[in-house]
Amino acid sequence: MSFGRPPTFSDFKPTPPDRGSFPLDHDGECKAQVMAYMNCLTRHTGDATPCRVEGKSYLECRMSKGLMERDDWSNLGMQNVPTSQNENDPATKP
């Protein structure tokens, strides 16, 4: 039995997915935000619900740096998530 080259597909033209794929952050522009999100997931044993603020911060960084297309927060499921931990903290309000 021979395992040669895989067959070639001369008519194959790749197309990007409609959603769910975006450029990698090769320069680490959003590294602080992704590390905060990952640390939060670790603290909460993988439960993303308490980490939504960090997730929103990460997505905002990606959108502002052009690493993903800007989208409405409601399309991303983040419309009711504050932009920072302190936004809902009564101790930080004047």
Automatic annotation (TrEMBL):
It is found in: Cytoplasm. The keyword Disulfide bond applies. Keywords: Cytoplasm, Disulfide bond. Residues 1-23, 72-94 are annotated as: Disordered. The keyword Cytoplasm applies. One of its GO terms (cellular component) is mitochondrial intermembrane space. PROSITE patterns: CHCH (PS51808). Residues 76-94 have a biased composition (Polar residues). GO terms for biological process: mitochondrial respiratory chain complex IV assembly. Required for the assembly of mitochondrial cytochrome c oxidase. PANTHER family: CYTOCHROME C OXIDASE ASSEMBLY PROTEIN COX19. Belongs to the COX19 family. This is CHCH domain-containing protein.
